From TrEMBL:
<feature type="transmembrane region" description="Helical">
    <location>
        <begin position="195"/>
        <end position="211"/>
    </location>
</feature>
<dbReference type="InterPro" id="IPR029787">
    <property type="entry name" value="Nucleotide_cyclase"/>
</dbReference>
<protein>
    <recommendedName>
        <fullName>diguanylate cyclase</fullName>
        <ecNumber>2.7.7.65</ecNumber>
    </recommendedName>
</protein>
<feature type="transmembrane region" description="Helical">
    <location>
        <begin position="123"/>
        <end position="142"/>
    </location>
</feature>
<feature type="transmembrane region" description="Helical">
    <location>
        <begin position="72"/>
        <end position="87"/>
    </location>
</feature>
<keyword id="KW-0472">Membrane</keyword>
<feature type="transmembrane region" description="Helical">
    <location>
        <begin position="99"/>
        <end position="117"/>
    </location>
</feature>
<dbReference type="InterPro" id="IPR000160">
    <property type="entry name" value="GGDEF_dom"/>
</dbReference>
<dbReference type="Pfam" id="PF00990">
    <property type="entry name" value="GGDEF"/>
</dbReference>
<feature type="transmembrane region" description="Helical">
    <location>
        <begin position="154"/>
        <end position="175"/>
    </location>
</feature>
<dbReference type="InterPro" id="IPR043128">
    <property type="entry name" value="Rev_trsase/Diguanyl_cyclase"/>
</dbReference>
<feature type="domain" description="GGDEF">
    <location>
        <begin position="253"/>
        <end position="385"/>
    </location>
</feature>
<keyword id="KW-1133">Transmembrane helix</keyword>
<feature type="transmembrane region" description="Helical">
    <location>
        <begin position="6"/>
        <end position="27"/>
    </location>
</feature>
<keyword id="KW-0812">Transmembrane</keyword>
<dbReference type="InterPro" id="IPR050469">
    <property type="entry name" value="Diguanylate_Cyclase"/>
</dbReference>
Length: 390
């Protein structure tokens, strides 16, 4: 590859990263930009500056003594940031210290090779270091492989393959200075530059597509999950209830339903403020979870009304569970900034009957709940017995 070809490729990489920076200006990331997207945007800006400086050096506009070490220092910092952004997206929020350390070490290694003033040694160091950073990004994309989307798996594999192509150039110079058969150093240099270009496109647009995919997945989750309490909302609870309604028509162990309503909750919001009310709701959900099995499910139906699904549980067993939760709520006040807030709750308990619909099931549970309220609150009542309630 001629010097002109190499300079042209570096200029293409510079313009490509600048185009990605411009694209981010118009990218709709929602009201709050995710930290991973912020780190990735910064990495693109640093890489754009790096490739621009290298292109100016190749065109003899900037002295090589400034362009080469400065450009590669920025490039290592940029790809380290890009790998860190991928780890941030994967949930590894402590990436900054190791990645900053790795970038500093890479810069020192390259500077040492530059001071030795050996062209081949610089090429080996640059290829191996860049390939290593991109492999780290591929490892971050591969986290949670079983739950990952097809897009994320594809990007992980593609990034790993291209990173190996970039690193192969350095390895070939180190191990096979004269090339190997038809695989000459010039061909490897061309493949390496092409791999860097494809990495720019794949990681650039791939990150944006993954961001869109994640936003769509979160929107779908919020349709069935209460954002404050991280439990199923009314729709999510009814979705989880549906198969148990169908199983109730078959012989076997019954499934119980418990509904609960916090007593006189309005005084909390009026007297202590809505943040205190939110703290009380989170506390109640946590108390419920402590008393439930992994197979049980608590959901928020509306306001301060909750429902608990107890698979393979009889009415008497459900009464015991509800009583434990009632006692836990009554004896566990919530500490707020202004006072200790004591709460109680009333409960209604029933089991799913073969002939039940959602309407009849919740009507019966609500009748039992109203009976608890009428009897003085802070108590558990069972729905009227039937042959199925055993």
């Amino acid at each position: 590859m001629t010097n002109l070809d190499a300079t042209t490729m570096v200029l293409v990489l510079a313009l490509g990263n600048l185009a990605l920076c411009a694209l981010l200006t118009f990218y709709d990331h929602g009201p709050v930009r995710p930290p991973a997207l912020g780190a990735w945007a910064l990495s693109k800006q640093v890489q754009a500056g790096a490739w621009t400086l290298l292109a100016l050096g190749g065109a003899s506009i900037v002295p090589e003594a400034l362009a080469l070490p400065g450009g590669y220092a920025l490039l290592f910092a940029g790809v380290a940031l890009e790998a860190g952004a991928t780890f941030e997206r994967a949930g590894r929020h402590g990436w900054r210290r190791p990645m900053v350390g790795a970038a500093c070490l890479a810069i020192l290694v390259f500077f040492a090779c530059y001071l030795i003033d050996e062209q081949g040694l610089r090429s080996v160091a640059a290829s191996l270091l860049l390939g290593g950073f991109y492999l780290a990004g591929a490892a971050a994309l591969a986290r949670g492989w079983r739950e990952a989307s097809l897009l994320q798996r594809f990007l992980a594999v593609l990034t790993a393959v291209l990173a190996l192509v970039v690193a192969a150039r350095g390895l070939s110079v180190l191990l096979l200075p004269g090339g190997w058969r038809w695989l000459s150093n010039d061909l490897l240099r061309m493949l390496s530059n092409t791999a860097l270009y494809l990495l720019m496109l794949a990681n650039g647009y791939g990150m944006l597509l993954l961001g869109r995919e994640g936003a769509a997945r979160e929107l779908a989750r919020l349709e069935v999950v209460d954002p404050l309490l991280d439990v199923p909302n009314r729709r999510g609870f009814f979705n989880a209830l549906a198969p148990w309604m169908a199983l109730a028509r078959r012989p076997g162990l019954p499934t119980a339903l418990v509904v609960l309503d916090l007593d006189d909750f309005k005084r909390v919001n009026d007297g202590y403020g809505h943040p205190a009310g939110d703290a009380v709701l989170r506390h109640v959900v946590e108390l419920c979870r402590r008393q439930l099995r992994d197979s049980d499910l608590v959901g928020r139906l509306a306001g301060v009304e909750f429902a608990i699904l107890l698979p393979r549980t009889s009415a008497d067993e459900a009464m015991l569970v509800a009583e434990r939760i009632r006692a836990a709520i009554a004896t566990s006040p919530v500490k707020s900034e202004r006072a200790m807030i004591a709460m109680t709750a009333s409960f209604g308990v029933t089991v799913i009957r073969p002939e039940d619909s959602n309407v009849t099931l919740f009507q019966r549970a609500d009748d039992a709940l109203r009976a608890s309220k009428a009897a003085g609150r802070n108590r558990v009542s069972q729905a009227a017995a039937a042959s199925a309630d055993v």
